[in-house]
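ok so i was messing around last nite and threw this chain in just to see what happens. nothing serious, just curious
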Amino acid sequence: MVAIETAAAGRVGLAKLEPSDGELLRRLFYRLSPETIYRRFLSPIVRPEQARPERLLDVDHHDREAVVAVQDGELVGVARYFRRPGTNSAELAVVVADQWQGQGIGTRLLGSLRELAKAEGIERFTLTMQADNRAVLALVRRFWPAPALTIDHGVYEATVPVNVEVRGS
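result:
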């Protein structure tokens, strides 16, 4: 991991995920509840291998980036983007360990990832989330107060601009 925002002992810092961080990512997976896993992957997976960790660790810090929240050497959250080939648009995903949800970790992760994406020329994020996931919808609305959401089979999709001002900043 390469530190982005360091923190004092017991506090949460931010770092860039590296391909060598597989064991940390695996341990985070086992600290997620089945509901959180389902909401992140939109599938009822039960083992980290089902999430294709090689894909999750495939970061090049340009077209594929991931920012992690770290507390006492363990991952407590991940935000990532994957640029669609030949475009300035990227898919966005965020997950935060259950015990850390509702504490601003997702907001910090998304804010940091957004800045990295802007620096790499990404102009839009595409988002996919379950329509009943109020926590993620609140996170999205913090950055994009009126996202144009479309719904299909209980899943919201949206495309939002990367370069926005966050409410309350």
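not much to say yet. The chain has one domain: 2-125.
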